[in-house]
Amino acid sequence: MLALNEQSLKELKNTLEDMGQASYRSKQIFDFFHKEGKTNIKDCTTLPKDLREDLSKKDLCKIDIAHVFESKKDPTKKFLFRLEDGHLIEGVLMQNNYGFSQCISTQVGCRMGCRFCASTQGGLVRNLSPYEMLGQVYQASNRYGKIHSIILMGSGEPLDNLDNVLRFLNLLNAERGYHMSYRNMTLSTCGLVPGILDLAKQNRKVNLALSLHSPFQEVREKMMPIAKRYKLNEVFKALDEYTENLGRRVSYEYTLIDGVNNRDQDVVKLKELLGHRLHHLNLIPLNPIKEYGKNRPQRDKIQDFKKRCEDMGLNVTIRREQGGDIKASCGQLRQKFEEEERV
User: Fold this and answer.
1) Would you call 90 a catalytic residue per the annotation?
2) Phi, psi (5° rounding) for residue 283?
3) Which of 90, 132, 157, 253 is catalytic?
4) Is pTM, for the whole model, over 0.70?
5) CATH number of the domain at 4-55, out of 2.40.50.140, 3.40.50.300, 1.10.150.530, 3.40.50.1100?
């Protein structure tokens, strides 16, 4: 059952008609939720008091900012959001020249099992609902200003929660609401082939990013257990269909791990995989966690790897690191905070 603030404008019209109310009220309600970013329907003064009372009895999804952590090194802010059932999720707000960019979580925890990621250490707890994703944007926006772009790269695998993610994207894009362009939305996936193919068939021109991390199937399987289910050749076939259907370049996230995926043979294989494709290779120096006993390369090694990729003709950048002093990487802060709460 969809909460009132998870319904499309058309669905709200049907809800009001079922209540014997004028359908034009649906626009006022939709604006209140998705343009003003509010949730307490009793504060929607454009509605009659009796209608507000009736609507307040219906399900409304809520999410609150529990804690804000501000970096002393840069303008990055890390959020812990508290859900109605008490679970915590994380989000990151980054300030760029063009405006705010926000990293969004799509699940509580994650079941993909990537060895180097803190989000997956406790496994998957549950999926987020559409409004639990929207609320992350609205809460940050109400406090700090309009969000220019979002990245679904917080905790969780977006394509493992695809129906809710698609409704979230549609509501965020809605002309009467926040009206964020699909082109300002990036969805990051471990490579769930059915989900990529579903996206390829739809007319949402979101940016797609693959968590690649190694160009070799056997190495990738050791880093990412999901790679055993979806082989690289299957993943790239699906990505090619996405690019062909929607004309969108795919980004490849590549966490640099010293001695694991920064070797000469890795560069050669990356050239083989990406050289003939529309691509962007995004190098991400590893943020070490205690559960994964590998190290990030030294700065000179990171720059050297980038140069070797460039010499191979690859379109490559190193992700600008932000919020390192506030554990801004996925899952690190939630994990630490929940451990402290249990003490």
Assistant:
1) yes
2) -85, 130
3) 90
4) yes
5) 1.10.150.530
pLDDT tens readout for residues 243-263: 999 999 999 999 999 999 999
Going by pLDDT thresholds of 50, 70 and 90, the confidence category of residue 120 is: confident
Query: How far from 268 is each of 139, 161, 231, 253, 311, CA to CA, in Å?
Result: 45, 35, 19, 17, 11
Q: What is the three-class DSSP state of 60?
A: coil
Out of 110, 114, 190, 330, which one is annotated catalytic? 330
Query: What residue ranges of the chain are covered by domains with CATH 1.10.150.530?
Result: 4-55
Give me the mean pLDDT over the 177-187 stretch.
97
Give me the residues paired with residue 317 across strands.
Answer: 282
Topology (CATH level 3) of domain 63-342: TIM Barrel (3.20.20)
Concerning whether 310 is annotated as a catalytic residue, the answer is no
Q: What confidence tier does 121 reach under pLDDT thresholds 50, 70, 90? A: confident
